[in-house]
Amino acid sequence: MLPLCCDDTVEPERRPVHTPVEVVTQYASAELIGRIAYDGYDPADDPNWQESGAPSQSAYGRWCRRLCGMACLRMVHMHRDGQAPSLFQLLAGARQYGAYVKYLTPPRGLPDIAGRDHRTPPAEA
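The structure assignment produced for this chain is given below.
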């Protein structure tokens, strides 16, 4: 098991501070976040969409607004391991466990699969 970043059993003044966590967003171009979120900019027009690992520009445009959970998961992996799967690799894995399933209304996200045993994908996924 990997060591914890911070140990709550140590007095606050002696508690080690972990290294800074690199920011990961669900959008390939962080400088476009404001325009996408507030100004109606089409995320599919993000010139760096390929960095997300999306199979196509249209898939990126369709999914990137829903990938905040994948961005958080990627941030954890990057901090812990120094590397991480792409957003779309994480999305593919999450879908194996029943998250982000299109045919469900409303679609299930990460909170809906949180209590499941993730060691083996479910047979029905």
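Interim note for the steering committee: Residues 68-81 form the longest helix (14 residues). The chain has a mean pLDDT of 81.
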